[in-house]
Structure formats: C-alpha cells, structure tokens
TrEMBL record:
InterPro entries: PIN-like_dom_sf (IPR029060), PIN_dom (IPR002716). Residues 5-121 form the PIN domain. Pfam families: PIN. It comes from the Bacteria. This is Putative nucleic acid-binding protein. It comes from Thermodesulfitimonas autotrophica.
C-alpha cells in the first residue's frame, strides 16, 4: 500500500499515557513510522479530542503548555484535514447507513472524502472495510505497519 493512513485519537493519546507502557511503546513506534514515511494524517477532530483526553482523561494529565506544543508540532509536520460541512453530512450518512456513533462516523467520513484508505484505531472492528476505508487496530497482536506502507 502506498496511500496515506489516518490516525485516530486513541493512538495519539496512548503515546502520552504512561499507565500502559506496552501500548505507549507501540503508539510511539507507529507514529514515528508514519511521520518518517510522510504517510500519516490527522483530522482537526482528532487533535481536539487529543487535547481533552490528555488533559482530563489520562492518569497523569499533561499541562496545557505541553499539549499546545504537541498540537503545534502535529500541525507543522502532519497533514491535518479540517472538518467541513461535507464531512458532517457524510458522517450523518455513516450513522444512518453503517450504524457508527457520530464521532466514529466523522472519522470514517474524513478518511473517505479525502481518499485515505486506512484508519488506525482500536475503536473499530479491526480488518473491517466500509466503502473503501479499512480499519486496523495498531495494538492488535501481530500488527505490522510496514505491511501497509
């Protein structure tokens, strides 16, 4: 595969969450490989959810200065897709036709409308494909990102 890969919020959050060192190490590895290859992409939704999660939901929350620096780094080095009215409308269709939760549908819609063939997340059924978007869990046993790059 030579396409881009959309990273969901949970992958970013694990990189900053010291409570699960195994997932933290895997998240770092995946994010580093995607950054080095230039194939990783994010959405504005993912960055917004990341801010909330790492400042409120992890065991050792980050301070806002550190979070701002991380977001600035992602914005300057990764492609970040905006949430447009078309993404919102497509997400509603994803909820209606595929029974996604709205926020998951918005991730799917962002990938689909921007022709991103793979979403890395532990929040979807790993290996499933919906209208050309394949969901993979980077924390699943045997996951090897190199097979998809």
């Amino acid at each position: 595969m030579t396409g881009k890969v959309l990273v969901d919020t949970n992958v970013l959050v694990y990189a900053y969450d010291f409570s699960d060192p195994v997932k933290q190490e895997q998240a770092f590895k995946v994010l580093d490989e995607l950054a080095q290859s230039g194939r990783g992409v994010l959405s504005a939704q993912v960055l917004a959810e990341f801010v909330v999660a790492v400042t409120r939901k992890i065991e050792q929350p980050l301070d806002l200065k550190a979070v701002q620096k991380s977001v600035e780094n992602y914005l300057s080095s990764w492609t970040v897709f905006d949430i447009t009215s078309f993404v919102v409308l497509e997400a509603v269709r994803g909820v209606r036709e595929h029974r996604f939760s709205y926020w998951d549908a918005q991730i799917w819609a962002t990938a689909r409308l921007n022709q991103i063939p793979v979403v890395l997340s532990e929040g979807f059924a790993s290996g499933s494909t919906v209208e050309g978007v394949t969901f993979l869990n980077p924390f699943a046993a045997g996951f090897d990102l190199a097979r998809f790059l």
